[in-house]
Every structure is written in C-alpha cells, then in structure tokens.
Amino acid sequence: MDAPQEGSRFNPVRVIRESTNVVKSKIADTGKKISEVDSEIVIKSVRRSPVIVKRAMLDSSISDLITKVPVITVILCLTVTALLGRHSGILDCRDGFEYDFCDEEGALNVNGDMAVYLPQGSDVQKDIEDVEQNWTTNVMVIYVESERQGVDQLPILKQIDKVESALNTVRDDRGEEDYVIYVLSVSTVIKEVNSSGGRVVKAFFSGLAEGTGSDEFSQQVNELVDEQSNIIGDYSIPDEQERVDQILGEMPQNALDKLVRDVGKNQNETAGYWNRAVIIIGISSDLDRDNDGKDDITISEIIENTQGTIDQISSENNWICLDDNGNEVDPESDNADEYCDGTELGLKMTLTGPVPLTNAITEKSFQLFWEVFPVGVVIVAFGLFLFHCDLLQTGRIRWVQGVKTLIISGLPTLCSVWITLGFIGYTDYEVTMTVIIVGPIVLALGVSYGLHITNRYAEAKGSPREKMSEAISSTGRAVLLSALTTIIGFISLVFVPMKPIQTIGYALSGGIVVVYLMTMLMVPNLTMMLDLKKPSHPPPKVFQGAVGVPIKWTRVTLAVFIMAMVMSAGYNRPNVEENIDLLKMAPAGVDAVDKMGIYSDEFNAGQPGFLLIDSDLYADPDPIPEAGAQKDPFSNLKGIEQLETKCNSVDNTTAVSIVFLMKAIGVGVNVSGAPINEAIPDEFGPIKDVAELIFDREQTGNLSFWSALNYLDLQDTGGVQSQNFLIYVFYESMTLEMRELFIAPSYDRSLIYIDMPFMDVQSTTLAVDEVNRYADEEMDGAVTSSTLIGVASITIEVNNLIVNSQWQSLGFALLFTVVTLALVFRDVRYALLTTLPVGFTVMMQWLAMDGLDVDLSLITVMIGSILVGVGVDFSIHIANRIKEQGGTIEAIQTACASTGLSLFEATTVTAGGLTCAYLIPIEAIKPFITVIILLLLVAAISALILLPAIFTAMIKANLGLTGGVSTMVKTAGLRRAIARDEADAIDAAIILGSTEDAW
C-alpha cells in the first residue's frame, strides 16, 4: 500500500485554523449586513406590526385561526392533557397497577361520609356538631368470629384483650397518644367490672376524704388496695372462667346484645354459644397534634395500622390456617391437612364500621373506576369504527376511514375526560363516590360533537382548508348549541341542596365545556392532518319506513305516547319508593363493606345514633350539703333509664346508657366493713349507709350499684345524700375512658347510644319516629332529650331532600332549555314543541324505574336532569332539519329519515360507553345505568316518532308550521341574511345544513 501524502494526513491545528477563519468571515459578513440595515425602516416595521397582526386576524375566519398551526395546536392540547391527567387518578396505585411511579395517595379528594349530603346549616348537621363537642362520632368496629369456642371463653377473651391493648396503648388519655378515645367490647366490660372492686374502695375513701377532710387516711387505703389488687381485682381478664361467667351473667340483656351474639353458620340457626362479638373503637377527630394545620396521621393510616395490628396478632397466636401465600384456608377443605394442625383457635377479626366503610368508598371507588374505564373506551371505539367504516352502509369495511374517524372523534373526548377529572384533582375539590359517573357520561356524549364537524368536512369540496372552513361555519354553532343545552340539563343539578349532587352538576357541565373546547381545537386540526374522506350514503330504508308511521297515523301515535305518559305519571310514579342505602353505595368485595352488612344483620346495628341528654348528673359526696344545695342525680338517672327501656322496645333498636354499667357493676367488695363503719363519725350517716352496702357483702350479697341506689331510694330524704355519695363512688370507680363514653366531663350532658341495622328508609323512618316520640315524652327527674342524632337521621333528612329537590332541578332544566332554544330559533312555540319529546322522556323515568324495581336514591335522583341534557340534543337535530327544509310534511319525512341513522349511532355509542359502569362493583350504580340506557332509547324514539307526530298534527291543523321556506326563515329572523345573499350565514345560525349530514 502506498504511503499517504503529507497533505492528506489529519492536522488538528490546520482544522482549527480553517474553522476560525470561516467563523471570522461569517461574523464580518453579518456585521456588514447589519450596518446596511436602515434603522428607520426597522422601527417603522416594529411600530406597524400590531396593525399588521390585527388586520391578519380580521381577515382570518375562525377556521383559519383554529387551523393556523395544526400540529402545534394538537401537541399543546395533548400536553395540557398530560399535565392535568396525572391528577385524574389514572396513576393511583391499585390491584394490577402497583409500579414504582404510581401514587399511593389518591389524586381525587373523595369523601364517602353520608353527612356531606346534608346542606350546610341543617338541623341534623347542627345536632351532630353538638354531640361532637364532647364525643367522637368516628367509630370503627372489629367484627370477631369464633367458630370453635365462645367469645366469652378465656382463650378468646385473652386474644381480644391483646388486640385492645395493642390499639389502645394509653388508656384514659382521650386519644392524645394513640388516637383511640375509647374501646367498648365484652372484654373491656369484663375488665371494667373485674377491676371495679379496688376502684370502689379508692373512690369511697376519696369521697370520704373530700367530705371529711381525712386525706391522709385515703392515701393509706389507696396504697393498701394497690398491694392487694390480686385479691380485690385489677383491670385485666380474670384467670377463672367462673368469674367471667358471673360478670356476664349479671349484665343487662341490651348490653349483651350490643356486644355478643349467637349466630349459626346457616340462616335461622344458632351455635349454642356466643360465637360473634364486636370491639367498638372511638377514634379522635383531632389528628393535628402539632397545630401545623395538617393532620399528623390520616384516617386511612389509622385503618391500615389497625388492620396490620390485627394481622400480626393473628399470625403470632395461630388464629387460623394460612397457606404459603398468606391466604386463609378453610379447615374443612380438602387441602386443610396440608396447612392446618388442629391447634388453631378458629378466631377471625375483620375491621369494619362507619369509618372503614367511609374510607372504602373514598379509596376504592376511583381505583375501581380506572380499572373499568378502559373497557368503556374500547366499546366506544368499536362503536365509532363500526358506524364509520361503511360496513353498515355498504357491507364493506374501509379500514383507513374507520381508524381516522376513531382518532378524530375519540382522541379529543378521551383528553376531555382526563382534563375534567384532572382539574378536579388538581384543585383538590371535595367530591363523593357519585362523581364516578362523570367519566362514562362525558366519554359517551363527547364523541358525537366531533362527528358534526368531520361529517360536514367529508361532504365539502375544495382544499382541506376550504373544506374545514365550510364545516366549521355550518356546524360550529350547531356543536355549541348541543353543548349549551346539555350543560343546561347538567347544571340544573346545582339546585339540589346537597353538595355532592351539586358537584356532579358542576363536573358534568365542566366536562361538556372541556369537550366542546377540545373538539373545536383538536377535531379540525386532526381532520386536516389526516385529510378524512367519507362518501355520503342514502338513509337506510328502515328509518324511512319508521318515519311514515307518525305521519300516516298521527292521532294514534300521539294517543299512544300520551297514554304511556299518563300511566307513568299517574300509576308508576307513586310506586317508586325513595330509599337511601349507604351499603349499596360502597364497593362490594371489600372486607369492611361486606362485613358491615353481616354486622348489620347479626347485631341489628350499623346505623349508629345518639340521644343527647341534658340533665345534671353530678353527685356531691359532701354528707352534709348546704341548705338548698342538695342534688338529686338518681332521679335524673331514673329518667334516663326509663327512656333507654322504651327505646329498647322499638323494633330493630338497641339502646344503652350509663345505667347499663350501673346494673353490671357490683357494689360490694371483699373487704370487712365493721372497722370502717366504726371509724366514720355518726354525723356522716349517709356515708355510713354506703359503707354498709359496699363493705358488708354478707348483708348486701352481690348487689349492683343500680339495685343499691333503688334500695336507698326507699329511705326518706336522708337517702338522697346517700345516693349522691354512692353515685360519686360509682363515677370515681370507673375508668375515665368508660365514664366519658357516656357522660360529659361537666356531668351536665349524657348520651344514650342507639343502634339500628341498615334498613329501607320506610322502616328506618318508623323506628326513628318512635324513638323520637319517646324522647319527647316526660320522664322522671329533670331530663330533656334531643331527637335521634346519627346515621339514621341523616338518611331520612337526605331522603326528604332528594324528593323535593328533584322537581326543582327538573323544572330549571326544562325551563332554561326552552329559553335557550327560543333564543336560537327566535320562536317560543317552536322551542316548546322541540322540548316536548324531552319532557315525555323525563316523565317515562317513573315507568322505567317502577318496571325495573329501581328506588329513587342519591344516584337515580339525577336521571331526570341528565336526560334533559342528553335527550334535547336528539330533538334539536330533527327540529332544525325540519326548520331548515321549510316545515312541511315532506320536510319532516326527509329530515327524520336522514337523521335516523345518526340518532341510532348516538344512542348506541352513548349506551355502549355507559355499559362499562356495570363493571364497577357498586350496587347503586347498576340500576342507574340501566335506567339511563333504557331512557336514552326512549329519547331517541320520541325524537324520531313523537316529534314528527307533533309537527305533523300542527301542520294538518294549520297551526303555524306551514308557509314554506320564506315563512320559516322569517320565523327564524334570517330574512336580512337572505337579502344580503349570505347563504352561509343561514347555515351557521341554525343547526345542520345538508340533508346528508350524519350526526
């Protein structure tokens, strides 16, 4: 090989030198050109630039402005979607979607609490706030199942005690350290009674010291009691089953019913022992301990920690059989021998109750939504492709045409759903479970808007820009009118005085606004970029034949529709019951939700409530009170006991108060009372009387505090002060946690806890009314009671609201729809006629709901307003076609035939998009979707058959729809446009131009 020449070798120095020379040359040339620029011309150009831009804007049509930079516009829309979309909840962690980038905390601020449905300032809301001044309404329930032995047996009680001790690490701290204010269960009651002896002694001498001033003696007794706690009893589960049986045997039945039950494996069967129990836990509502304005721990974390504690204790103490994956194994299954050794306790605990139920609704709803929403997207995409690939029209598939239409109409709608939900998440606006329906509805309705423009574009002639200009000028206002009327239907929901439904109104209305904006920005640009070409096809014969029926048989058609409407309003409407069931609004398959239903059935509980008692329950231990200062708390306690007894007589109602503990705790202790009585001065007779009751068990036996108080009540006036002292001893002998569960620290307020199972509203109303009737009656002592406060009262209040507010929202929707159409048509009568099919569809909801056995609930109450928003769109299409073509019978036939396939497509695609909601395992959503889909079909039929029948009847009766094109144009206020020969303006002012335009 020849050696390379000298000059061909790579020389870095030479390359750098040559590059430097080139740069210098460029700089010199640029400087020369700059020096030749006339500065005055530059300044003049800069000054004129706003004018030039303004002229360009004025000379440009809306279409020109929208499609100026198609690629950039589409990219900007997608960028906005991506930025807001991450706040929509699509990246929330859920089953099957647990990647490193997913968000553990939900993006949307969902509140599942029933109380949020109450209007601000309602009496029920004020009552709840009144209770929360002294007590928490945040309650969790641990549902205990023991299949091998009773929950009252020592091995099970010990396990329950372990769970309670692990959760309530610091008793009597009012939740300051562990966020647990109280724990109530069969275990806590046993521990309370077992330890009461020592505390009774301490309380007695504490009262003696306060009444006599002998503090030193009281301190010595306290030390002695602490030393002999193993004899007197301490706060623990006793080691002897006999002692446990004794304590439970002395408990009132209503207290036992609240805490333990005998439930067999099959319905109407018993196990022969208490195999079910509950641990009721009150959670602090103050989670911000450092006062920084942010909760130190969330309710979700408390629930997670509680469940983790239960699982850990279960694993450590061999409660149940577990397989290698940690799943429970049935001891009676075929593979039980592989995992079970027979030593398992057969114990299971499940966290449920109002707080976990609310949390399940809060956290699971949107996780489930994003799991099923892709199914709706696929269904809508399939529907769009099917109707626009020419398969139905020609029998052949145009793949490119179908895919282009799918992208053009589907992508903006999909972006709209993400933007709508993303904006809600970004603003942290509080929503409820019902906002789930926003996605499917916006998806289902939004795709039709893009089809307005793409169909007109496909029919137009010329360059892509010219065709788009014609499409936007002729259908842009059509899309706007469709959006406006839909928004009116949705925004009417804000008249319902319940914030969650108002939120749905705002969300759906906002979603349609976003759909409109994204349609106008993306569809024209995507259409031009893809250069969609679609051939026109004649209307299918089936629709031509269907239209002939109302024209030929006008009176019969009207009679049939009127009869159906009268039947629905007169017969079916009274049969539709109002019913609110919180469990049906919760996602099924979640342990907290499923077990709540079982707890409701087995314990007649689940709807916790309270009677707030105003009564002075303070007991003065002074044996010689000042004249006129003597209190009589026992008479007030008797009044509370009377009300509690009456409430327990109400069907499906369990009531407990402080009195149940007085009946459960024995007054006597294992200490000799003779020397104590001798040490008490004679002038302190009331104290001597109480000392005999407490310390002389041979005389009193195992008398309860309540029985002892009744015994003292047989005495004369001196017995009142003895009762005061004994009640003081009782109060002081209780743990702070247990006492303040029933009585406020000021002793002037008390609670009677009322439990009811989840029932229909009618049964709940009967029970609540009876409880309220008893609460309003006179009782012994100075006792006044509130009406029932809690879940049941909220349910009734909300139920009354949905009945009254439904008509308000419907009236607003129909009224403003008529007003909007009247402004567009410039003809009130024509607007009324166009709205009549919508009114018919709304009236038919009663027939649909009664026929399908669907109750009026927090979700189905929105059906009417949603139908107005959706159904009026169908009528507008046909009404404007008829108006556009002259208002004759021939125009009616042509307009309906050409629009029939479009309505069929809209109904099918909308219904298909909504069907994805069936996959959401929330029972209340399914009947709502069924009724909506059925009434969508009714809306399409009424627009296609009822509206032509109405117009035909008017024409045949010469009542104003005759006169040809000129009369119709005059009615629409368009004569000036024709005079100026602005034919395109007519297209823009009304809805649809060509008779071949598909919706």
Measured on Cα atoms, how large is the radius of gyration? 39 Å
**Number of DSSP helical runs:** 41
Provide the helix percentage. 55-70%
Number of discrete domains: 4
Strand content: 5-15%
Structural class given helices, strands, pairing? mainly alpha
Mean model confidence by pLDDT: 78
Q: Which ranges are low-confidence, i.e. pLDDT below 50, for 5 or more consecutive residues? A: 1-8, 962-999
Major pleated sheet: 5 strands, antiparallel
Tell me the number of strands: 12
| Terminus-to-terminus distance | 77 Å
Shape: elongated
List the helices and strands and how they pair.
Elements: H1 12-36, H2 39-59, H3 62-66, H4 70-85, H5 123-131, E1 138-146, H6 154-167, E2 180-184, H7 186-194, H8 196-212, H9 215-227, H10 229-232, H11 241-249, H12 253-259, E3 260-261, E4 276-283, H13 299-316, E5 321-322, E6 328-329, H14 336-339, E7 347-352, H15 354-388, H16 391-394, H17 399-426, H18 438-459, H19 464-491, H20 499-530, H21 541-552, H22 554-575, H23 591-603, E8 606-614, H24 633-648, E9 654-656, H25 658-664, H26 674-679, H27 685-695, H28 697-700, H29 705-713, H30 718-733, H31 736-742, E10 749-757, H32 761-776, E11 784-785, E12 789-790, H33 791-825, H34 828-843, H35 845-851, H36 863-884, H37 889-915, H38 925-956, H39 964-972, H40 975-979, H41 983-989
Antiparallel strand pairs: 1-4, 1-7, 2-4, 3-4, 5-6, 8-10, 8-11, 8-12, 9-10
Helix pairs in contact: 4-17, 4-20, 6-13, 7-11, 8-9, 8-30, 15-17, 15-18, 15-37, 17-18, 17-20, 18-19, 18-20, 18-37, 19-20, 19-33, 19-36, 19-41, 21-22, 21-37, 21-38, 22-35, 22-38, 27-30, 29-30, 32-33, 33-34, 33-36, 34-36, 34-38, 36-37, 36-38, 37-38
